[in-house]
Amino acid sequence: MKIILNDIGFGPHSIGVLAKVIKKSSGSSPSFLELKSNNIGDEGAKKLSGILKVATSLVHVDLRSNEISNAGLMHLLTSVGESKSIATFLIGNVNSM
After folding, report:
1. What are the Cα distances from residue 6, in Å, to 36, 56, 81?
2. Positive or negative, the Cα torsion across 36, 26, 84, 54?
3. What is the pLDDT of residues 30-85, one digit of tens each?
4. Residue 82 half-sphere exposure, CB side, CA atoms within 13 Å?
5. How many CA atoms lie within 13 A of 38 on its CB side?
């Protein structure tokens, strides 16, 4: 399953909803998650890091242009590092605070 939600104004609250959906879809976890050009920010990155830990079939994550600072990036990188499935992790435009 692919989840592609680019440039739709996705923010931290939306990530919380997405996390609940993915956790409940245990038999059909996504393999592809693309959330480019949204407003996830550090709060959303922290929530998303929880998704990355439980989505065992996730191999591709694209979070480019999401207003994520180094603090949010650290949460994500910890989860990606612990993941046994993520092969591609794209992030860019990380703003230092």
Report:
1. 5, 22, 24
2. positive
3. 899 999 999 999 999 999 998 888 788 899 999 999 999 999 999 999 999 999 99
4. 13
5. 23
